[in-house]
Amino acid sequence: MTRYKAIIFDLDGTLVHSAPDLHSAANAALTASGRKTLDLATITSFIGNGVEKLVERCLRATGPYSQALHGTAMTAFMDSYDANMTTLTRPYPGVPDCLTRLKDNAVPLGICTNKPTEPARKVCDGLDLSRFFTVIIGAERDQARKPDPQPLLRCAAELRADPRDILYVGDSGVDHATAQNAGVAFRLFSGGYLKSPIPDLRADQIFERWSESGLRTDQAGFVTVAAH
Ligand SMILES: O=C(O)COP(=O)(O)O
Ligand SMILES: [Mg+2]
């Protein structure tokens, strides 16, 4: 059985259901840009490549796109999101229990997200999740972001773990590609914002509810994955 020394998690759509607050902020950005608003399912389908891309996709879905419009829309988006990062956002059921068990067994835990680092930290602070994580790495301007392997490898380095000893848990094709690019094992939470099935995943690499994550620790403190 494969054993892992540390676990890195994606954030949006994996640990937290953040789409409702992202939806409100995206609609504030659209309204400020003179565009019609979009429904939750549409905006949820735009999540996964960072907030700039989310806003760009909203603008392209509602009319012509320009860089200037994107700047205005981003300001409105961040103003709204800054004030409402955890108004509607909650951890998925079972997440705090799972993290508590891992932390109690001294498993090093990290987050690697395409959300900008500061909002990622604020969301974790607001939902009492920060205490579980040694490192939170988000997207930064001018730095490579997922599916580039760099942020995931940086996260592994900060956890002092070899990439071969890491498990990355995410909800999207971007997360899967990131893990592959970094040579890191992957497990999919399919109850988040997955857009289409990932063809080369085995059924035993997928879980739909956190109560069925299969993440366990053995007596030596290594993580194993048990079939549910
Ligand atoms: O901000 C996004 O688009 C996605 O963030 P994630 O990488 O935590 O899923
Ligand atoms: Mg995600």
UniProtKB/TrEMBL annotation:
GO molecular function: phosphoglycolate phosphatase activity
EC nos: 3.1.3.18
InterPro entries reported in the protein's UniProt record: HAD-like_hydrolase_sf, HAD-like_sf, HAD-SF_hydro_IA, HAD_2, HAD_sf, PGP-like_dom2, PGPase_prok
Obligatory cofactor(s): Mg(2+)
Catalysed transformations (reactions): 2-phosphoglycolate + H2O = glycolate + phosphate
The keyword Protein transport is assigned to this record: no
Alphabetized UniProt keyword annotations: Carbohydrate metabolism, Hydrolase, Magnesium, Metal-binding
UniProt keyword Plastid, yes or no: no
Organism domain of life: Bacteria
Family assignment from sequence similarity: Belongs to the HAD-like hydrolase superfamily. CbbY/CbbZ/Gph/YieH family.
Designated name of the protein: phosphoglycolate phosphatase
